[in-house]
Amino acid sequence: MSRVQIPLPAPKTKIIKNRTFHFPEEVSKIIDGIIGGWKRDLLLPLAKASFELAEIFHRGENFPLNIQTVLPYIYYFFPRTFSSTFFVLSSIEDVIRDIMHKKMNEKKDLIFVDLSAGVCSSSAAFIYLLDFMARENKSLKDLKIRLVVQDISDVALDFGLKILHQISKNVPFKFEFEKIVSDASRISIKKEIGENPDIAVLSFSLYDIFHTDIDGMIAWSDKVLKSISDYGIFVLIEPALKKRNSLFIMKIRNALRDYVVAPCTHYEDCPVLKIQDDWCHFGTKWVPPLSLSRGMNLIGGRVPEINFSYLILSKNKEFSRWVNFHRVVSHKLEEKGRIRFWTCSSSGKNLFQILKKNISDKNSDIEYVQSGDVVFIGSTKNRDNFYEFDENSEFKMISSLFSLKFFER
Fold first, then answer.
1. Whole-angstrom Cα distance, residue 399 to residue 375?
2. Residue percentage of the chain with pLDDT more than 90
3. Model pTM?
4. Which of 92, 98, 129, 308 lies deepest, with the highest CB count within 10 Å?
């Protein structure tokens, strides 16, 4: 399957060496309003209940989202799911912008569907991104957004819609919200929505829906992909769990490789699947909502980390996946006198190294490399088990999963 190759762009000029994401204060205030505030007598039982849900989740057990669990779930899980989805969607902001322009030219609404939405954290992340996009391109504000949320829990959707109405209040788009209470594994998207959606998202839900039925996941993902518009995208995001959720993502990717937009930069078998005890995932440092940090401190617990695996699919054959570039699949490993990092590309998963004395104008971007970056790598020397840069080796930052404009210095 041929794709359009994007020419090498100019390197990014504003690079933040240590990227730490600060969870949006305006979203934190909405969460605090939903859960009732962040005083100690409220946070203590809420933190205990939410941590119990986290323990259930990590044991691989499901729990229902009902009136007893929904507030602890919002308190603990919403910030992490919101942040993960926000970064994945922001990494393809140009693709989303193109879809929006197409809908405006056709004089049609953009349809966003949040599958197995729970408390609608993915929809909230999309709205938050739209606010940024509208500031940079005011013409987009004329587009109407039809936002459909689906879940088996009516209670969760009602709480989620409360959040969506508040977060969209000052975002300059026309929104229409719809909810579908149904089983995601049985949903017929075209029948229930009436049209082919342009953006479909499933976040942190594969295990809840299919448990370990990977064949079922692949068949369902293929069905969802076929139901979206010809230039639409289907986004799957899962927590970074090596033997469960991340494995699901990698196997779905292998089965549907011809449609993968990201994170892969090649069409070959997933090299990480061939490496025992390895898995494809990305993460960043963050400052969580104050109420979450405070509650976890009260019970001696840890706030969740932003670590996830993801997959973006599309039927649009003109999407480039940065073919011939490398995706950084580790954090920067900085030791005395050298910098190391792993990448994934058509040649497999490879370790790269540069001695700090060899950093030059041609490769200075390497000082700022982070998990999820797409990078251009010129000639390197093949050592026994790694590739080494010299002062004449080229290295350029091309694109970032964790978009730099959303980080504070």
1. 7
2. 67
3. 0.91
4. 308
